[in-house]
Amino acid sequence: MTTVRDAALTLTGIVKQYPGVRALDGVDLAVSPGQVHAVLGENGAGKSTLVGVAAGSVTPDEGRISIGGRDYPALTPALARENGLALVYQTPALAGGLTVAESMLVLLPEQVRPRVGAASAWTAAHLRGLGLDIDADRLVSELTMREAHLVEIAAALATDPRVLVLDEPTEALGPDETAWLFDRIRQLVAAGTAVVYITHRIPEIREIAQTLTVMRDGRVVGGGTVAAHTDEQIVELIVGRSLDTTFPAKPDLGGAPVVLATEGLRGTGFADLTLRVSAGEIVGFAGVEGNGQRQALRALAGLVRSHGRVTVAGRPVALTGPAAAAGRGVTFLSGERLREAVFGDLSIRENVDALALPRVSLLRTLLVPARERALVAPAVGALRVKAASLETPVNTLSGGNQQKVLLARASIGRPAVLLVEDPTQGVDAGARLEIYRVLRELAGQGTAVVVLSTDAVELEGLCDRVLVFSRGRVHAELSAATLSERDITGAAVLATEQAVAAPAAGPRPGPRRRLLGGESQAALMLLLTVVLGAVTAARAPAFLSSLSVGQLLLAAASLALVSLGQLVVVMTGGIDLSVGSVVALSVVAVSFFGAGPPALFAVGALVALAAGAAVGLLNGVLVTRVNLPPVVATLITSIGVVGLAQLLRPLPGGQAGDTLLAALGTTVAGVPVVFVVVVLVGVAGHLLLRRARAGRALRATGSDALSASRMGVATVPTRLLAYLLGGTLAAGGGLALYAQTGIGDASTGQALTLASVTAVVLAGASVFGGNGSALATLATALFLQTITSSLSFLSVSLAWQYWIQGSFVVAAALVPLLRGRRRRRGLLALGTA
């Protein structure tokens, strides 16, 4: 037996409490060097929470963690990694905005991390050495799930870990890759590494593990050597409970007509689904989470693109989307009630009759309250929904009553097929019995019901048949004598199917350019700027005069700095609506120092930059500590900051002296020095975002904050830094604006907020965070300012100037939507090719 003294990893008395759930209840685990220790249990047993505690991504409420004999009250992912513990998550903890090589830089501890300049070559060599054909310069977002798993495994292997934790590592892997992984595990174990292997699959345990621990409901319920346990004993430990819930009686379905039928249905994550569901029958979908059953259910509802044949009552269903499925009488009840099913702020009445509005309206246009109540009240009463009235908002109800509202909606819709996902998730025992009763009653009215559940007890008691999925295919069909909780769980954990192969995604993108990281958007914007300038100069030669070009570049400098500040914030998934107000405050602050010598102006510039940094820091605190939405937080500070600027300068004033104006207007080869400085700031920003650790942290945080945190990125300080830099750069934009106007005016700069967002999005940054280019933002700011200047030289009316500039704002809003649609189509094609 492993003792604490000789264990490579020890978890002692670990307790983790979430609201309403005790996820871990005094768990002990000790793993010896040179040993594979399997941890098993049903979904929700606490396995992933436990490994999160070991890896530092979950902070325990009580307990002690020891790695290599050294105790830690709590860990961070970075600290765990630095002390020899590597973790491969069930869902890869990789940020989509980073390349494979950049991910390695974040994941690897300091002692084995390659130099930034050599990261790509080092990663490519490491992957080749492991026999993996993955481009080191590809974005993580372009990888398949299988490739992402392999990259994370490769990063863990590169650390030569003292302890390696693998959470469901083979779920996305094929047989060859699983064999490859097991060979690597054996090599590590032979070298003395301790391996913790989380899985549901008993055959894998037989092949790779020496000892095991079984968890149930947050507690350890058994363990020992693998050889000392039969498969049946392991299943018994995993299940450990009897069918003690009262379920409705199951009818005799002999001779009932088939309502739902599929032939060879396939889609993302599942294949070869052939199904028959009769009128009055309840069929369950079971299996370890992530084995294709959820995608298959949603494909039946038209929510997941699929191929094959589906019929309802003998009539084919076009596999084009949810509307086609609903048109054939298919109703889907999502397990994500608040996100996908109910209208939280609307009443019970409005939620229940949402799909039956023609029946409760006059001439299909005007709702008739009496008709609504007559239709809704009986359905709600039959389900015993606990609420003060039909006008009670659904988001004030308990989870069980919300589910009853959804079932009431389904019942009045008279569905031919009812698809129910996790029907009793978050529901108390009493409400469960009501839900079971209603599902059976709906089936009794001739509806074909398909239920997906992770609760084997529920499936045994409720369903007439259960299909157990494994790696995208139906592994077993259980009915009558074989339909038991033990058989359902045993079929899932004893499955040995190969994973559904991911179809080819077409030609892979080639290697990315090393120097500028593929700055095609920057080149495009510069080209458009040159073309626009040439066209304007052909009509108005004065456009290229030194005075005109100087003013254009000064104005572009201000917009560029503000846009760069906005970019840093947007890359973390936020937005800063206060940048225009910060510009105004900066212009006003520096104007009090403008009448003196340039040295005094330098002091004023520092004051203005400090003020901008303070506003940015305040924004960051409101977003990260107070948890205000970025739009709300920065709008609040915007109002306050512009108010402060107006108090300081109720009227324009603080004219810059002649000496200062001459200094600010200094040019190099006809280019204002201010613009040169801004270009240097943009280049520095490019290097920061692409080469520096802080830049990788910004992109990782915006791509996926949870994955970034698991990778070891300090996401909260990173977001604080982003807002601080955003405020500072906006203040710099104010200084550039003062260099252009030479006067303090609190009403200036407000238009730069919208212009900066437009510049950032047109430059190719995602409004959802994770990517962006400083060079492209710089070039886009110059392009937008060129548009403004050229329109005035071309004598375009002010109205048309607004129309043209507005069209670019609309384009900026549409760009991310079109990109998202194209990406979704690509993923669908990948899953159904």
TrEMBL record:
It is a multi-pass membrane protein. The chain crosses the membrane at residues 522-540, 552-570, 577-595, 601-623, 630-648, 660-689, 720-739, 751-768, 775-794, 800-818. The keyword Membrane applies. InterPro entries: AAA+_ATPase, ABC_carbohydrate_import_ATPase, ABC_transp_permease, ABC_transporter-like_ATP-bd, ABC_transporter-like_CS, P-loop_NTPase. GO terms for molecular function: ATP binding; ATP hydrolysis activity; transmembrane transporter activity. It comes from the Bacteria. Signal peptide: none annotated. Its main location: membrane. Residues 9-242, 253-496 form the ABC transporter domain. CDD domains: ABC_Carb_Monos_I, ABC_Carb_Monos_II. Keywords: ATP-binding, Cell membrane, Membrane, Nucleotide-binding, Repeat, Transmembrane, Transmembrane helix, Transport. Coiled coil: none annotated. One of its GO terms (cellular component) is plasma membrane. It is found in: Cell membrane. This is Ribose transport system ATP-binding protein. It comes from Micromonospora carbonacea.
